[in-house]
Each structure stands twice: as C-alpha cells, then as structure tokens.
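Changelog excerpt

This revision adds worked examples to the README so contributors can see how folded entries look when concatenated. The first example is reproduced verbatim below.
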Amino acid sequence: MGVQLTRGYSSDAAISPFLPMRRTVAKAERAGLSVGDYLDRYSAEPGATAATVEAMLRLGGLEKGVERVCEIGPGSGRYAAPVLTALQPRSYEVYETAADWIRYLRKEFPQLTVQPADGHTLRHTATESVDLVHSHKLFNYIPFVATLGYLAEMARVVRPGGVVAFDVMTEDCLNDAATTTWLDHPDRGIIYSLTPRRWALDFLARRGLDLLGNHFVPLSGMRTELLVFRRR
C-alpha cells in the first residue's frame, strides 16, 4: 500500500522525519543506482551532490586535508562520502535525528562519530574545535527558528580560519516558475522554509563569519543557495 510504519520519538517539528531509509535504499537498488545518485535524480539532477561538494571545497580553499569535520543532517551520507575522500579528516562527526538513517550511516560509514542530536544544537561539539562544519538540503525544510539555532551553533564550533557552509532557500532562489508551482500545488510549497539572505549574512558577520562565495544548487525544479564562510 506504499505505507511504512516507523517508531516515533518526538513531536518537535525541527526533527520530523523526511525520506524513509528502507524505502529509499530499496528504490535506489531497483534503479541500479547508489543511494546518493538516486537522491540526486529524485530531488535535484545527476551530479548535483558532487558539484555542490566541489564548490564548497573550492570556495572554502579546502583542497588540503583537515583535522575535524562536523555535518548536520547527513541523512544517507551522500555529502559525507566525497568530503571524506577529498579531505581525509582525522575526525568526522555528524548530527542526525532520523533513527533509520543513523543505523544506515553506522553500517556504511563506520568511521563517522554519530553525536546525540536534539534537532537544535551541536552541544556535544566543543567551541572553536572544527575545521569545517556544513549542512545540505536541511535548512530548506526545518522551521526557521531551528535554522537560526543551527547557524549560531555553526559559528560557535568552527575554529578561527575554519569554514562554515550550508544551503538555504533565499529570495534569490525564487522565480515565477517556482512560485506558480507553489500556488497551483500548495501542498508542495508548504514544505519549504525561506531564509532571508541579507539577514543571514549580517547575522553570521556579527559572529565573525565572512562570506567567501556562493553556488546555486538544483532542488525539485527550483534551487537553493550554497553559502560558504570563513571564521575570522
């Protein structure tokens, strides 16, 4: 019937479930694709994940290896995999709230350190301790107040000279095609959360983060904006 029963453990909108792991993995296997390639085809376009990671590393000047990386909402690990390959960090910690994807990550990426996640903070990561903290395809779906908390936490945990990177849906991502789709199908548009670009830049600048550059990322016929910062 297309229904999957999962155990719920929170009513917090910031950690509501997204794509179910077993169904997603099964669909990828039937399509003869890796989970990452399947998700690119499902919600973006082929090669979008690789292009996003390449842009993040290039804009952040991260061609060389780093010591510590932290990722918020890794899900299937499709962004973690190329980052691990490119940077070969000594430590890679993740904050994930979906229990099924946590099991998948522990099996597929045993080198990851899975931190206890509350959907709002990076409380188990020390201040000014990581070289790169990043998040992808998450802040577009969670409540704005949860994104606000995560941005403050990313600024807290990154070391001076380190890089913060994430994608959000800003006003620069909107066009007539996207808004027409939302008006015609409000059940689709209601899942997205917008982040004011100017506000985000000012908010992070006050916390010592300078914008290095941006890159637009396709998402379900629209796009999000990857923003990359360096901590002063």
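The second example, added in the same revision:
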Amino acid sequence: MVSSSTGFNSGLDIGKSYYVATANPAPDHPALIGHVEADLVVVGGGCTGLSAALHAAQRGLKVVLLEGGKIGWGASGRNGGQMIPGLRKGAKGLVKAFGPERAKALFDLAFEARGLVLDIIERHAIDCDLRLSGHLVGAVNSSDLKDLEDEAECLARVMNFRDVEILSAAEARGKVDTPYHGAMYEPLGGHMHPLNYTLGLARAAVAAGVTIHENSVAVRLEREPSIKVSTATGSVRAKHVVLAGDALLQGLEPRVNSRIMPVGNYIVATEPLKGKRNVIPANVAVSDTRFVVNYYRMSADGRLLFGGGERYTPSPPADIAGFVRPHMEQTFPQLKGCRIDHAWGGLVSVTTSRLPHVGHYGEVYFAHGYSGKGVILSTLSGKLLAEAITGDASRLDLFSTLSPLPFPGGTALRGPLYVLGMLWYAMRDRIKH
C-alpha cells in the first residue's frame, strides 16, 4: 500500500477486519527520515513489493522498501485468502488470445506461484492457517457448467494439466451446502490467512537485509540523473525502483496508473458456525461463475468469510456488513440473521484484459492489476521483478507481453466507462439467472 491508511484508504475499515483481529505479532517499522541510498527502492509493502525486496536482497542488493501505511494493510492483507493457481483469464481465454503454445507457457509460469508460496511458507515458518483443501468454482446455471467442462477439457488438452474434476450438482453440494448446478474442483487450490502470510514475508525480507519504512508515502519519483523516490520526510536514491502499490499507487508513473481501475471489494466474517451451520464441510475455497463473483471460505476458527456484491466505484458503502449480507444470505439462506462479527473492505485493481500489468520502463519496474488472482500471483511477480533487475529478464518478458490496454479516456474517464461496462455484465448475470 502506498498511501496512508488514514488518508486515501480511510473508511474501508481494514482495522476492523478479521485478519487484523487475528494477526500474528509484528514489529513496527520507523518512517523514513533523511536521505539514503540503495541499489533498489520498492514502493509498496504488500506481497509484490515484499517478494521483490526479499528476492533482490537474496541476490545481494541493498534494498529499501517504503510503505505508505502499515505492512499488509493494502489488498495483500485483506483479501479473500483464496489460493487459486493460474491467471484470471482461463485456459480457453488464453488460447484464444495468444495461441496454444504461448498460452501454455503463460499458464506454466503462472502455476509456479503455488509452489513458490508453499516453499516460502515452509522455509520461513510462516504461521498463516494454510489449508490445501482445494478450490471449487460453482456453476450458477447449467450453461456455466458446460463452460466449466470445456475449460477442464482445454486444460487437459493444451496445458497438459489434469488436476481438475467436474462435479455433479450432488457432488458439489457435498462440498459446499448451496445448490450449484455442478462445479469444477481444483484440488491444488486452497486458502490461508493473507495478512499473516504478508507479515511473514516481511519478516523474511528483513532477515535477508531489507530495510522497511512504514508510514512513508511516496510522493515523487525522479528518473534523472538516477532514480530518486521522495517522501514528506526523506528520500531514497537507487539504481532501480519497483512500483508495487496496485490500486493505491497514485501519480508516480502515469503509464502504470492508466492501465488499472481501482474498485471496491468487501468481505464479512460471521460468528463461528458449528455443526449443521458449517456450510462448507469440505473446507474448500469457493467462488462462483457470476461475472461479479461471490467468493468465500471458512476461517481456521469456523467463521464464514464471504466476499461479494456489486460495487463499481472506490467509494465505500455506509454499512459494509449490510451491503454484503444479502449476497451471503442469497447463497446460504440457512444463515439468515446470523451474527456478523467483522466487516471490512478496500480497493483492488482490475485491468481491461483481466490479466496483470507487469514490466518495466527503463529502471522503473512494476507489477499490479491481478484482477482477483493476486493472493499467490503477487509473490511470483515480485520474484520475476527481482530476477529482471539482477540480470535475467526472460521470465518477466514473457509476463510483460500480457500488458493490457489503457482504460479508454485515461484516468478521467476510466471510472464512468468502467461502471457502464460492469452494469452491463451485472444485468447479463441477472438475465441468465
């Protein structure tokens, strides 16, 4: 997160989240005061920035990381915690856009994120409620089930990936107690406590030699005669910079900002659900086939964490719990009236293609726009940035070919045009269902 948690991100109640309430102890990091030099300055203390910092430091670079608020209080520490290998665009979409050979190369690279995150968790002993119980995509109608069947066939035929299973309505109901028309089950998925993972990644980065400064909003980026990032109370001069602020990155690089749309994302955590009220007996992570996706899972202490609803502007609803509850109760009528103990939200970024925007302009490196798949993909992107900065850009170059088009009309018109587009898809969802 780049901006202050009490400024640009105010009103979204991250401090009231289930994740903050159950976070592992973590040190505070002092704000940047004065002028320092480094090999690499990273802007943003989420998983992208922390991973870039960690992997760069492990390659011998002196790294300084600037976080505008608190480590993990951006999208990395408040998301749904769903570990879903791959990209937001599925196998069929990748093949259509890039052809089978390049699509498989992109799929294989993206899939590395799973192994990387699991290795980091084990190597650095990160306690983050990891559950490798799988991910289920529920078909909201029968035509969606056919689409999932086609996706599974494409995964097997083009990607040589067969770790998916198509479930009947009854089989899906055995894993999650809501009446889907069927589902695609991905056993290599799972879920975790994203804030505790992010805090663990920060601990690993510090152990590798990274200097972290919290409450240090980056206000200016200069490129000549060399990279210099300034805050209100100091600056860092470096050979390279990584911009990893995602939806909260403001103004430092217009070519980056023009390719993402910040949108509101909201989650609730219920009271602990016991016995027959445990609506996900298989403990899988779940999302559905709506364009405006509902996604949910159980926490380690038995709460339903449910995210969803249609909010197309960055301004938050006045009552987050009241905003999300109808979507939760539509999915699980048996939970009508249950107590909601936590409700929070924040901004995430989407791109025109729903594929990440990763690459560099000279010595200015960036990665963002994961469009809902950033829980593990962000860690991989950070590693790819570090590889490129230290001399091997081959894998970053493959990802950079995904570069989405800027939003039409630039930052001034992207909001209204995006709202119109989302309203059209939301209307299509209602017609289909």
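Reviewer comment on example two: The chain has twelve helices and 18 strands. The mean pLDDT is 89.
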